[in-house]
Amino acid sequence: MTGKLRKKTQIEQMDRGVYDIKNKVVFRSKTEEGLTEEIVRQISTEKEEPEWMLEYRLKALEIFNQKENPVWGPDLSAVDMQKVTTYIRPDADLTDDWRNVPDEIRDTFDKLGIPEAERDSLLSGVGAQYDSEVVYHNIQKHLTDQGVVYTDFETGLREYPDIVKKYFGKCISPNLHKYAALHYAVWSGGSFVYVPEGVKVDVPLQSYFRLNAPGAGQFEHTLIIIENNAYCHFIEGCSAPKYNVLNIHAGAVELFIGENSTLRYSTIENWSRNMYNLNTKRAIVEKNGKIEWISGSFGSKVSMLYPASILVGEYATSEFTGISFAGAGQNIDTGAQVVHAASHTTSTVNSKSISKSGGIAVYRGLVKVHEDAVDCKSAVSCESLMLDNASRSDTVPVIDLGNKHVDLGHEAKIGRISDQVIFYLMTRGIPEQEAKAMVVRGFAEPIAKELPMEYAVEMNNLINLELEGAIG
Prior knowledge:
Elements: E1 27-30, H1 37-47, H2 51-66, E2 88-90, H3 103-112, H4 114-119, E3 125-130, E4 133-139, H5 141-144, E5 149-152, H6 153-159, H7 161-167, H8 178-186, E6 190-195, E7 200-210, E8 217-218, E9 221-226, E10 231-239, E11 247-249, E12 252-257, E13 262-271, E14 275-277, E15 280-285, E16 290-299, E17 302-305, E18 308-311, E19 317-326, E20 331-334, E21 337-340, E22 346-355, E23 360-369, E24 376-386, E25 392-401, E26 406-416, H9 419-427, H10 432-448, H11 453-467
């Protein structure tokens, strides 16, 4: 019986199209499975790193071995690093010309639309990582003429060692949690962005991360430094095909936003259902600075992701807008963290989640106000939409106020699709399944409108994919 004749009731049965492209695993070098000092040293030697970076890796490995899995959140007992290959160098050299990317890799990125977006001038810089290394990177000349740096992280370490050493590990510490330590032990690839004072990067930069190999991990490091009175919009895309083995993603994103500057950081993640997505993202925001997080979490078996904003300067601002989708067999545990470490700071969190077919969607957040941070404002809104009786949605907020001079509000709403709304749409000639899909897309619209057009279209396509055959 063909898929067209059989009604699909599980997402695992669905064809994810371009996202499930599986290329033959061709590599120039790779480590053995597992995580040992020898493997960490091999990665460092492969990259010809300075001694201080190797020492940092080895210290992080010690911390990883000492720390236990988090006792809250999803079960991580299945994450066995002895079954994971932490480093795979693809058989490709870094290039700024798409024609020089190996055919099979280039074809995958073509189908994902990465070169097309650059050709259509939707992006002012593009990076593409395949497994453990960046294979393509380019930035428009008018930005380099203004002193903007956008390159892969290894090149950043080699060509701007003083800047990288100054900021690396200062926003996210290996001591933060077990998988932050894992990241620092085996990191590879990622992006380095430096925007000088007074420069506005109005057209977005983008990095796309593709994990092709089964049983592998991806551990890219992103470091973005925005000097005073500057602006940048950075977009991060992620995907991987589905396998029946463990894959792990434990990247790190360190963001530094100077005085009177703004960074918008947009992410659309579409990992496969065998992926454990244990990513860490943090921003430090100076006086009058602003961080804008736009986040879409799709795919993965388990996600634990809580972008954090540390507001260290007066009148600094954090805005978080995010959506997650949990289907059958998924536990998507996401949220946002804000630390008000200075007076007159402001934060808003607008989180939405959708769950169906027994999926678990959890908002887990933190708002912390320091004792001497007075006249702060924070507003948190969590909305959850469950598409059936088997699904689950929870809101787990932590609010820690160090003083009484705070204006704070928190609201949470959990509900199901209204039968009356569906009936009304059906009386207007709209089939039931499309009526439900319309309601879901309307629920997600506040997030979609914050994304550039092409990425909003991608997000709606992902929602349609998730809904296919599952809410009839």
